[in-house]
Write a structure and sequence with these properties.
binds nicotinamide-adenine-dinucleotide; about 20% strand; Aldehyde Dehydrogenase, Chain A, domain 2; alpha/beta; Aldehyde Dehydrogenase, Chain A, domain 1
Length: about 500
């Protein structure tokens, strides 16, 4: 059987990444499947990041002159290259992050989808014509390219998050400098190679339109601090966003923050419990609980609590945990030891707060000692306290009981995060209240499905400590452009707005 290291090498070579990019560097990349080293990349320095920003600035000045539908052609070609590379890149995502095979492929499909969306968008960057109070005047609103967009991304969607930002930024006329997670540089190198093939086919892409910079926080900070980067899109923990958001704001830059979630589902008395069970299982245990939208809190009406939680306990006890590329397992490994330790700490805190923990132990037989597999944990909590109000990036589902709908809504909204939420109900009054202004306070509110698994067509993001940013579909593109309002006087007089008079003595030169 091919080892993960050998397979990674084969995949990277097939994707066109030169061996010098993933061997011989000082940062060791490990696969969470077995813990073994699968690459050694060279980090960029903060000075290298500054140089990349300089090149991106020059590229922006050329790219903004290219008509938007032609910019869309580059993104269309990128989508074609991603289609051709889907099998290999999807597999590489699984090797580097530990996702099951279909989720690795799904991540690449999401990249293809956003390229299709952005290609169409390149002909739809509409502005407005606005009625003006002044005679012989016209007023309009235009959207112009913003400049260099800095993208900082998290480990758990190592390539899709880049594409959500970059596909929009390219059609909007911006250049992109990307710092991926230091845990996932290999998939980023593959994206760099795929992009360069699209750029070659396009011809005439300015040098520096897209630059990948590798490294940890210090390299990201170079993007955050640099006034030549008007837009910083940062995806990761709330702790990171608190620092990045403040620093970008200090220099009056714009940040698109996509931070931690603590997503809940409410199960009402009218819910279809079989459907709910399947949806909860995927949302809470899929991706080993390492999605920003993973289901972390289940708020169940007391009339259906015993039936639903009884069934859930059986599903939790039987779900297969193991190497998703060599077994049929639905739950793969946690990214690293720190993630496993964080999970155990949260479970201990839950016990201290009166919780009853089912599952959560390490599955040592699933992989070598250096790999961290854990059984997903279901935790019955007496109240929403302690670890329940924090995001632990692991497969822990806290279960709470409610009796009145208002109480369920208060629990759903009673955490600092505001990314995603859902309700299971067939009572239309409860459904409508949940999605109304008095309902869920999250950026995403689903009905009869879990909180995870968003499509690219909608704007993605959340409120409160999730950061308030929106990416991907709908009109999220506006964050990558600058808005300009222009009033044009085509008359021979100078009427002032609000009827203001300011008649100066022009010495009789007026007509
Ligand atoms: P992380 O915060 O540890 O790192 C994210 C990225 O930020 C990395 O590239 C890291 O190097 C960089 N970084 C950290 N500190 C920085 C600083 N001060 N300046 C500049 N860059 C800095 O997150 P992670 O462990 O990779 O990912 C998991 C977290 O990401 C979870 O909280 C999850 O909910 C969140 N997430 C959110 C979304 C979303 O769309 N809301 C999507 C995916 C992941």
């Amino acid at each position: 059987m091919t080892s993960p290291a050998a397979e990674t090498r084969q995949l990277l070579e097939a994707l066109g990444v030169p061996a010098s990019r993933f061997t011989g560097g000082s940062r060791t990349v490990r696969t969470p499947l077995t813990g073994e080293a699968i690459g050694a990349v060279k980090d960029d320095s903060p000075a290298g990041a500054k140089a990349a920003i300089g090149k991106a600035q020059a590229a922006f000045e050329a790219w903004r002159k290219v008509p938007a539908p032609q910019r869309g052609e580059l993104v269309r070609l990128l989508g074609e290259e991603l289609r051709a590379a889907k099998t290999e890149l999807g597999r590489l995502v699984s090797l580097e992050v530990g996702k099951i095979a279909s989720e690795g492929l799904g991540e690449v499909q999401e990249m293809i989808d956003i390229c299709d969306f952005a290609t169409g968008l390149s002909r739809q960057l509409y502005g407005l014509t606005i009625a003006t109070e002044r005679g012989d005047h016209r007023m309009m609103e235009q959207w112009h390219p913003a400049g260099v967009v800095g993208v900082i991304s998290a480990f758990n969607f190592p390539v899709a998050v880049w594409s959500w930002n970059a596909a929009l930024a390219f059609v909007c006329g911006d250049s992109v400098v990307w710092k991926p997670s230091e845990k996932t540089p290999l998939t980023a190198l593959a994206v760099e190679a795929i992009f360069s093939r699209a750029a070659k086919r396009f011809g005439g892409v300015p040098d520096g339109l897209f630059t990948l910079i590798l490294g940890a926080r210090e390299v990201g900070e170079a993007l955050v601090e640099d006034p030549r980067v008007p837009v910083v899109s940062a995806t990761g923990s709330t702790a990171m966003g608190r620092i990045v958001g403040e620093r970008v704001a200090r220099r009056f830059g714009r940040s698109i923050l996509e931070l931690g979630g603590n997503n809940a589902s409410i199960v009402t008395p009218s819910a279809d419990l079989d459907l709910a069970l399947r949806a909860i299982a995927f949302a809470a245990m899929g991706t080993a609980g390492q999605r920003c939208t993973s289901l972390r809190r289940l708020i169940v009406h007391d009339s259906v609590y015993d039936e639903l939680v009884g069934k859930l306990k059986k599903v939790y006890a039987s779900i297969s945990v193991g190497n998703p590329l060599t077994t049929e397992s639905l739950v793969g490994p946690l990214i690293d030891k720190a993630a496993f330790d964080g999970m155990q700490k949260a479970l201990e805190e839950a016990r201290k707060a009166g919780g009853t923990v089912h599952g959560g132990a390490r599955v040592t037989e699933a992989g070598p000692q250096e790999a961290y597999y854990a059984r997903p944990a279901l935790v019955e909590m007496p109240e929403q306290v302690g670890p329940v109000v924090n995001e632990t990036f692991a497969p822990i589902l806290y279960v709470l009981k409610y009796s009145e709908f208002d109480e369920a809504l208060a629990l759903q909204n009673g955490v600092p995060q505001g990314l995603s939420s859902s309700i299971f109900a067939t009572d239309m009054r409860e459904v409508e209240r949940f999605v109304s202004a008095q309902g869920s306070d999250c950026g995403i509110a689903n009905v009869n499905m879990g909180p995870s698994g968003a499509e690219i067509g909608g704007a993605f993001g959340g409120e409160k400590e999730t950061g308030g940013g929106r990416e991907s579909g709908s009109d999220a593109w506006k964050a990558y452009m600058r808005r300009q309002t222009s009033a044009i006087n085509y008359g021979r007089t100078l009427p002032l707005a609000q009827g203001v008079k300011f008649d100066v003595d022009d010495g009789g030169t007026s007509p």
